[in-house]
Amino acid sequence: MTFIEVDHLTKIYTPKGAGEVRALDGLDLAVPKGTITALLGPNGAGKTTTVKVLTTLIRPDAGTAVIDGIDVSRHPERIRPIIGVSGQYAAVDENLTGFENLEMVGRLYHMGARASRQRAKELIDIFELTEAMNRPVKGFSGGMRRRIDLAGALVTRPTVLFLDEPTTGLDPHGRLGMWDIITNLVGEGTTVLLTTQYLEEADRLADSISVIDEGRVIALGTADELKASSGGQRVEINLVTADDREAALEVLTRYGSAQPTVSADGRSLTVGATDAPAALYGILGEFTDRNIRLYDAGMRRPTLDEVFLRMTGHAASTTPPEEKPDELVARRDHDGAGHGPHPDEHRAKARPAESKQKRSA
After folding, report:
1. 205 has which bridge partners?
2. pTM attached to this predicted model
3. 22 forms bridges with which residues in the sheet?
4. CA-CA distance, 31 to 52, in Å (whole number)?
5. Is residue 113 part of a domain?
6. Is 181 in contact with 127 (CB distance < 8 Å)?
């Protein structure tokens, strides 16, 4: 059953002194219920803009977006109670404690004082923040801020969760812990749409991956399918001396499925191979026969940059026109009637004076 359906979504910006930017250019997307779908793409591809449309923060210029049968643009007030959002930048009040931040989110959703405190305590335990729960967030590490932000997105037990680059800035231990939490949520029936630049993250978490570039989905499949479409595995060798480069290139060209690439110093060579183990075995045999000396040799899967270089002609590292936090302001519905601010906006925009009022209330 399709839970999130996006059809020909278009969003155009016209920055001052610059040309038109098509952040979304006819994007199509389908997310089945109870699964994890990853939007994989370079900075500026349109991932964050897609999330902003689906979470009612901006309206598209064309196309439709539907969640659980509800049109996002027509009925944003019906969408907000069923979604949770954790953006690229932790939307927490630094002057409140971790516990108070979560309790505040519950209050903003009208859960009541007792239910808000109970849910805050549950999430503090789940995210292993018990020792820090009564400390102001301004003293938290980057990883702890990410965890408290994600916990805030889960206060209302949303049926669909939007995660915009959820593990950016986390150390390896924190990243693995976040992956486990996300996986457990889906096991409990939550539908997750996450954006990421990390192929490893999409590989580990996603049931399906939509590759986005220039505001469009350019490829769809599992991590294995995408890697296979980029030439499968790679054979890498590191020569003792660059003097053997030409002989090594000749061997790799015969065993590889594409033209080999050579590093700047001429000693590291890489080639795609349909059957990498067989190719590596043959390459090593010929190197031995021809006395081509190696420091090391091995196989690996394509990197994110290689996947994108093959699919789009450029690497996954560009400047994002639509993802600069100070350039976009969340907008309400065009008619502006009948809807209060989104709870996530309260979390992101709380000021110190407001925080003191909440703590004394």
Report:
1. none
2. 0.73
3. 12
4. 16
5. yes
6. yes
